[in-house]
């Protein structure tokens, strides 16, 4: 049951129109599906095979007549269809049970409302269909339901008719003016209310924007609406792409497998990415809402107007749309320094999540070659690395060149289902003189070769001639099925600094060979190289920087990304040194004065933004440190990082106090980048002050944290104060947690934070696992709600390495039980959790053996979903 990209064939039939009629009922929904089909003349005549899953089939009619059919593993097979290429009618009547649909794929019920999720292959759980993205049809949808229970009836496109029926039910008829693949179908029915906004596009067209939520949540929709309006304006201004619909709807649901879904004209969102008020959402939530609203909106062109030929091309829409949402957030952030902060955050995600994926058992190219379950490939590789590939294209053709490339892409492919090759070709063809055009076949290795490339840089300065040589060597480790890698096209942003920090030169080098040497004449002394500026390519840069060089870069580099990077390297070098020092107890770790002074200088620098300082003063993540090692003891990494953190807390005590006092007042709450940066730094300062107090036993700062927690006027400050108490393990944490729960017991998204904070707390003597088990017994816990399951189980298994990787294997036993338990409820969520042990082969004993055993226990279950089966099979393969 493996599917290969190389096996792609056009569909044997096209579906031109779909007329759907739903009688919505939670226990038994009736679906009448009337389609017009015709044979695809380019494909050999063959039976029609329609996908269907968990459906009850009641009737099949061809041109109004009964017909013979058979079922073959989840396909309805029709062999006796009319010959020739004339269109024919196919009518299929089925029922399904939305209330029992715990997989949240297809049509399901959440809080007494109906929702759909059809990407990637959920439409087949609603009706029999050619459920593949290259079959694009025109949809008409008639919804019928009880009027009292389901007053709002929504589907894609325009509402053309609505009215009451005799039996207390009502109906609504929707017509989508655009052809679309089945994965973009959506319907919503329930008791919902909408914030509405009428806007006028630059072209002068009127549009109605709506954000639908449950009645009590209307006051939390302003930010989502503002983000939507900003998205519409941005896509017009930056790419000339206008809203093509009279009505654009967003609907929020609290039961959702992923973040959100770009259904044509009817985006369905996880509440987490819609609802926000200053009292309930943090600055991070506000930022995420802006970027996810943008992301789904931008899909309207990159994904919906031009869609994917097959699911191997997923990055065609996802990589491009992530790139677009990243650019959107950067453009909204404003100044160069705020853009850099966003860039650093994005790179941090790439390095802590995508690099490990690319080095583990689920490694796959941006355009995968095979899969068992496509839902397993909605990955950081397809999304975030895919976005980096698009970003490199923009780097190679320039910002204007990229915009022309997009224009050509739409001229060529609007309304069609295409491939990653088609996209790259359009960008290159619009820029025939560019490096991208010259190097296109080689550049496209970014789509086909998995693994994170490494670039090793070695500098040599010759005093006699004044020449500096920089030799760059690229390599890429083998990944499953790809033993040997060919060289990539790697744009490398470069700068040379003098020892005093002055910039001597800068530019962009495009590395194409395995090894190249760059020559810089006329230098008075050995320069300090600033390499891979702005993180110009998704590679690992290896350069043996001395502390002195890193301190120069940290203090003077004009590239803010590499400034931050220099600080991270200083910390990584120290952490790896301590970790590798046999017999060194965490308590004996002493950070050196130059490092501490450098951090102090950054913290006190009047020219740096608070947001940047917060990033620079945060130590590299435990998982990132783990990736730098061949053999990993996550508890050791945790202990070392915690020790370093406590030292920085104590050594910079006065500076943290200063930072706290000078940034804590923000006036009226706004989630803009400047004031959220100030809150972030205040929060970090408070955590450090509480950590320092922990070491010294002083109670002043924990007391202040508790007070701030009580007095806070917004969730960011309140949550940061709570986190400072929990993170420092102070005894006041208990009462603060209790109070927090009482305050927000009716706010599901805030309770998620409450659960996540405890499940992700720094482990002290193995205390987190018992706490997690307790949390699962809490009346507010539910395994069925993905957000809640993630807030407890994922926060522990995936985001708390120090607590999870126990030497007694109890974390892994817990993990295997939860994977199995979740798999029978929701395979997509279970398969995500299954990936928490992706990197088990790196673990030190006894964890390695125990992890293997736990994975084998899951794999031994006979009736696993395809989703989990694929993950554990790959994990155990060698
Ligand atoms: N296309 C959606 C997005 O990126 C993600 C939906 C994925 N859903 C899934 N079940 N695999 O915005
Ligand atoms: Zn997307």
From TrEMBL:
Please name the top-level EC class of this enzyme. Answer: hydrolase
Please give the InterPro entries that the UniProt record associates with this protein: Aminopeptidase_N-like_N, Aminopeptidase_N-like_N_sf, PepN_Ig-like_sf, Peptidase_M1, Peptidase_M1_dom, Peptidase_M1_pepN, Peptidase_M1_pepN_C, Peptidase_M1_pepN_C_sf
Show where the Peptidase M1 alanyl aminopeptidase C-terminal domain sits. Answer: 547-877
Record's catalysed reaction(s): Release of an N-terminal amino acid, Xaa-|-Yaa- from a peptide, amide or arylamide. Xaa is preferably Ala, but may be most amino acids including Pro (slow action). When a terminal hydrophobic residue is followed by a prolyl residue, the two may be released as an intact Xaa-Pro dipeptide
The UniProt record lists the EC number as: 3.4.11.2
Zinc keyword on record: yes
The Peptidase M1 membrane alanine aminopeptidase domain, residue ranges: 224-439
Provide the alphabetized UniProt keywords. Answer: Aminopeptidase, Hydrolase, Metal-binding, Metalloprotease, Protease, Zinc
| Gene3D superfamilies membership | 2.60.40.1840, 3.30.2010.30, Neutral Protease Domain 2, Peptidase M1, alanyl aminopeptidase, C-terminal domain, tricorn interacting facor f3 domain
Role this protein plays: Aminopeptidase N is involved in the degradation of intracellular peptides generated by protein breakdown during normal growth as well as in response to nutrient starvation.
Q: Which family does it belong to?
A: Belongs to the peptidase M1 family.
- Return the NCBIfam families for the record: pepN_proteo
Specify the protein name. Aminopeptidase N
